[in-house]
Amino acid sequence: MKTQKQPCPKIHYQKVTYEHKLFVIDQITNGQISVNYASKKYDISRSSINYWIKKYATFEQNNKTMSKDKELKKLKERVEELEFVKDFQQDIIADMELITGVNLSKKCLPRTLAKEIEKKKVNRLK
User: What does pTM read for this prediction?
Assistant: First the structure.
């Protein structure tokens, strides 16, 4: 007597909205619930939840990359602004030293800045 094999019943899951996916993933990543508990609670397969987490992580990483590009752009603009301010201040110090004849930059500033101011003074005298 041969017994006939019964096909395994396929589990049908309901469609899940994007907001619900993000809600479940947020709970898991914050440590409020585990993947197994979320699977049972929301009737979603663990593999689906793991897939969402993986997909969400790459999405989140891309958003951070974009914000890093914006941050880098802002930092470059700030560096240019500070370079302008530094040059302006060095010009003022060089002019003051030429007028008064006192070399304060050598006494009060680091060597690299004092050398830059000395170069500016030489250029002004030409």
Answer: 0.45
